[in-house]
């Protein structure tokens, strides 16, 4: 978003909660690479360096983000942890500007872009008996690599993209990994016959949903197959419909599935009870574990930032914004970026949507004061 505004020479203030650019990417697990190809994953107006691989690594992305900020002269206000967002009023009920309160300062703006993303706060469910477990319990946010778990029995709770990859990383570091999966998992291969699948998804996205779903379903049958025999179930709907209607992102497989089929990574159902060293699953089976990794995802937690009346107007039942912007009275000048997860690639979507927001934003104001 900052790149879009800087490119248009539109003044803005960028608030960053940490003390560095790209702090989230600096702290992700070591082996992480983008699951989308670099041609569709760069930020606006600055491609990735030519010598970067097709799938950019975590460290390479951090370097790119630093270079991006330098290229566009982006100077964030660091250590500004936002605590509340509300609409000010010019006396009576006349809508005014946006007030953003941080732990140290107050900022006022005519236009406000909330770009905190859908993964701002770790989701750490209170599993039955988890507090009694005697082994190590960590959220995937603090996982770096499988070295500390070598030779140990490790339960990974959740099989999203992170859970699937951490289970693979644990196996490759000599741990005995089990993934707890509550229901059917939609899995798509990152590459088919050595070719990335993302460009195909982008091409199919031009067609009606029913055609996309038909082709995606056939492709999934041919490349993944029915995984019921491996404890992963068979989703009722194709990947695109799961995203559109239920917000469920498919797992982009990087090799976990082959290790499950080979018997090197175990799959267990949902958790019924956790004891000091033993976990009981919903099918009645029990297994001992030395450590538990919560790959249970994140949540946007916008209810914690937006005043209640505002949150009720702009968020859906899952806590996500319902639009990129709102033209209704009392909501004009408010924008949201980074809360969608399309099959065609999240970074590609950020690129497109940030451009739409920047165009709308610059048309709406003649005296810009953007936050």
From TrEMBL:
- Molecular function, one GO term: N,N-dimethylaniline monooxygenase activity
- Pfam families according to UniProt: FMO-like (PF00743)
Which keywords label this protein? FAD, Flavoprotein, Monooxygenase, Oxidoreductase
Q: SUPFAM superfamilies, alphabetically?
A: FAD/NAD(P)-binding domain
Q: Where are the transmembrane segments?
A: none
Q: Say yes or no: keyword Flavoprotein present.
A: yes
Q: What is this protein called?
A: Flavin-containing monooxygenase FMO
State the taxonomy lineage: Bacteria, Pseudomonadati, Bacteroidota, Cytophagia, Cytophagales
